[in-house]
């Protein structure tokens, strides 16, 4: 193999030389000097085998022609084909710099090529404007003359997460190209964005660039057997096309499946022929947005179609995509930077490029301090249907979804507001994107040692061997919920005997580490604790004492306290556990415990059985409560929640609960050996009686005093009135007697005297 390497290198040099001999076809600009003279020479490295680079090559030629025409100056462009090979791209860069004397290089498209070309350019102080979308942050520190001429599109991962959230999908499978350097950046961004909306990536499928048909069928068959039906495709155009054609042949483009394609694949959908489009019906795509309504773009679009058709008649479609317009803007950036400076090349040209600020076909062209264009922030949501695709709307991090752009655009909270989506298989409703397989019934753990068996009861059926029967309110509600699901749901109940409800819930955790990883973590933490103890043992009193005490101190940031300990502040020695309702009742009656903390359903059952001896008291604490636990991000959650809501709204849940409580008879009256409920005596309320009696007595005395005073004042007034009347009446009587005595006497003195004496007596 080592003997063949010189021959391989010789063939590469021959290919490059051959390309240079045909440079007349790829050189723009006349050797004849115009009035303005030659501004400079520009180089470009492309891969003529890809549609994206074909568009870039035509667009760069058009840019140089427009510049020469508009400025009356001459800029020469040399283009070399790298065939997508990083080594050939590096050799092409050396050839352009040493032989063609170029002052700047445009391209290449991939980071593998760009890394080698950037090294050559920085060594010779030649700016390299790369079209690769995944330039690492550290690249400019190593290669200071590297400039990223394509915007970072990592925000599209947030757009994909927003799509997943809109339709309440919680699990996705990611299919990406093995060896693609962009995957190392894109996949973590997608994973983080999905976690932000409560979803997760359950499976990764890397595909080699030149995957065989048999291997692709094998991998898709494995995906077909999984339960997740949402696929995010991050592949090159050639590999993506092979994937969709194979998926269609395997009936994976039918109802129940969802496919979401990323840029740059979606930016080339316009170039696919009808055969490829037919295999992609219903695919959703996220692509970078470019405004096609401006006059400059319409003018460019019309000329590009004619030019592209002449140079690439083998293509079926001739309209420009994002690769064409960004290459046009990059070429214009270098051209104007060369015109601006009297000194061509080197650091001066790099500074002019980075100071560029103009309105291009892609929008505002302005580089940031890290020598990159600002990240793309507006993406278009497309839906493949018919002979092409339909533009559903837009998404931006600032505004979310919207049907249109501009000041009057109406923002939408969900993708569902953008209009009807054409899904694979053309279903009338949104796919659930999760289908339980018959080969993998869901295993449902049921606590075998339930305290209240009216809720959950597990019995072993002796007639059926080791089979178990499951009953109770929770079981019945779960079965009623499954009846409301829109699909068949295979499951099996598994009795759980190994601990508490907490330990049962722990069985469904998403396990982030392997067993060996957990062991290693424990060993490292113990070692770190030992080091701290060994160093600080003579300086910290807490680390002194017996060996048991020191070990306890070492492993103490590991205990997890229960709700009563942490929230309500109860001490461990004040908490007792009981396994049956009878034990609760006995402990309450004997005052072994002052109160029993029970969940609401259990409290209802307990009071139904002990209806006279106990009552509920105190606040109701809002905790997790009873329910059906699923792993976080389970695709079943939306369907189960919706079905359970239907059970509640239909009244079935209330009916089952009332049936359970009605079957529980009150045993307080008939229980033997237990004290009956005692009547309340005066001893329980003597203090209350004293208080109320005292208050009533004080009120009565106060009232009597007021009444006496009122009566006394009224009696005294009547007496004085009577005395006055008697006084004036007596005064009037005296005056009347004197008048009678003044009458002349006529008769016997004895009669007169006697009459006078009787009158006085009457008075």
Automatic annotation (TrEMBL):
Function, as annotated: Glutamate-gated receptor that probably acts as non-selective cation channel.
Stored Pfam families: ANF_receptor
Listed InterPro entries: ANF_lig-bd_rcpt, GABAb_receptor_plant_PBP1, Ionotropic_Glu_rcpt, Iontro_rcpt_C, Iontropic_Glu_rcpt_pln, Peripla_BP_I
Membrane topology reported for the UniProt record: Multi-pass membrane protein
Disulfide bonds: 611-666
Location in the cell: Membrane
Entry-linked PANTHER family: OS06G0188250 PROTEIN, RECEPTOR LIGAND BINDING REGION DOMAIN-CONTAINING PROTEIN
Signal peptide: 1-24
GO cellular component: membrane
Alphabetized GO MF terms: ligand-gated monoatomic ion channel activity
Region (Disordered): 740-763
The Ionotropic glutamate receptor C-terminal domain, residue ranges: 443-663
Main location: membrane
Family: Belongs to the glutamate-gated ion channel (TC 1.A.10.1) family.
Membrane-spanning parts: 685-708
Organism: Ziziphus jujuba var. spinosa
Listed name of the protein: Glutamate receptor
